[in-house]
Structures are given as C-alpha cells and as structure tokens.
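Notes from hallway chat w/ T.B., transcribed later so I don't forget. T.B. wanted the structure written out for a chain they're using in a teaching module, and asked if we could keep both sequence and structure tokens in one place. Agreed to drop them here.
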Amino acid sequence: MALVVAQAQQQHDQQWQQQQQQQQQPQLQHKLNVALHAQVDPGSGFIVGSVLTTEGMKQALLDSGKVFYPFAYTGLHDRVWDIAIIEGYTLMINAFIHEVRRASHGRTKVFFYCLDPALPGLTATAALDVDGFLTNSLPVLQVLQRSAPTAYLPLAVDAAAFAFQPLPPPLPPAARVVFVGAGGALGIKKDLEWMLLEAAPFGLDIYGSGWGAHAALAHSK
C-alpha cells in the first residue's frame, strides 16, 4: 500500500512540475506569418540578389513566409502578418510599410535587412519607419543601432541547392573574375564601378542586366 501511495505521489509531483513549466513558457497560438519583400518580381525575368535572399529566407522559415515585390502584392491582405522583412531598397518601401501597418492595426513588426549601405544610404535607411534592422555588416550595425534595435545576420547558402558541379574536361576558357548583379545603380555604387574597372584587365565576366550604358563594362552575359 505504501508503495502505491508513493508512486501516486510521485506521479502527482511530476504532473505539477509539468504544469508549472507550461505556465512559465509562452504558448504559441499559431505559426508565425512572415511577409518578405524583395526588389524585383522574378517573373519579369530580371533577377537581382534580393530575390535569391528572400527565397532562401522563405525556405528557412519552412515556407511559412510569402515573398512580395513592387507592383506584386497579391495576397497581402489574406492574413495578418506577424513579421515583415524587407530586403533591398525600392521606391515603394514606405508605401509597403504603411499598408502592412494599416492592415494589421500596428501589430506587424517590420524589419529592414540592410545588405547594401550605399542604396539608399545609411541616413535614409535609418529614417525608415521600421521596428528594427538586420545587417551582414558589423560597421553598418554600429550605425543603424543608434536608430533602432539592430541584429547581425550574415548571409548563408543552401549547400544542397548550390552544390558544386564540376565541369567535364577540358575546361573552357574563363575569366579570372566573375561578377553577378545588375548595373542599374552604378551612379550610386561608385565603389562597385571602380572595383570592376580594376578587375577588367585580368579578365572579367559580368552576368546581369543594365550594363549597356557603361561602355567599359558592357560585355555582360
């Protein structure tokens, strides 16, 4: 009898401890709804870095997120977004932030992922109506954290999706330097322009659009 009582008491104590732990832990009522915003709709055939970044983040979020683009906001009002992450500056960012906040009555937390401090510039970036910033640059973090909470988030790559594929011999002749990206913002990204011009004499291949206006760099793929 004493053994039965002891076992019952032990079971009761375990249940009580479990209840206390459950009360102390925040209960997640639903999975997070995350809205991601990239610079360009890939359906247009114009691919930029933010498209790859947001697609990767969407997969990391186990497909609980949805990616929006300028002029492509179908489904924006289908649910209340818990978090909105903007990667890449566009002229429609302020309107997107306003609409997300309006539709959620201020519930959505908005973050800007700053991967390019030159566009639109750190002063303009710091003035965005966001709840916080993400960046892959420690110097940029030091600047943006003066305006809002900022976290360091390096870029990563899916090793399976981007696995190295060796070319069969013989290897075709190739440039020593390869750059992937759009050339439409060279007027702002002066560092990028001189960097590519310095690399050109060593053999440079550029993959991207918007380079036709620059004679020295117009040999893009």
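Follow-up for T.B.: The beta strands are 34-37, 65-68, 83-87, 109-114, 132-135, 150-152, 177-180, 204-207. Might be a good example for the class.
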